Amino acid sequence: MKYFGEYNQNGYSIFSDDREADAVYQAGNCQSDSAQYLPIGALGTIDLFTIAEFCEYTGKAIAAENNDEWLGCSRIDDDEPADYDLEENKNVN
Predict the structure, then answer these.
(1) 72 pLDDT band (50/70/90 cuts)?
(2) The model scores a pTM over 0.90
């Protein structure tokens, strides 16, 4: 299996190569609670550069943990909704 990540100012997600499946990991843009999404630019949000670094680090760790390949991460448009139900680990759209 292979893994890749997608990120934007709302947070990031790690997926397996089965893109139709739910993300294997998700995190929001909140500094104090990675399970939360804050409005872009709100006090307490993580900057885009750091979100990208977290996406890369976490994806590599997940791939290594499973003895699989990490394909890298890419930025998606901030217009694309990153409103995931983190409790259920799935996209609510």
Answers:
(1) very high
(2) no
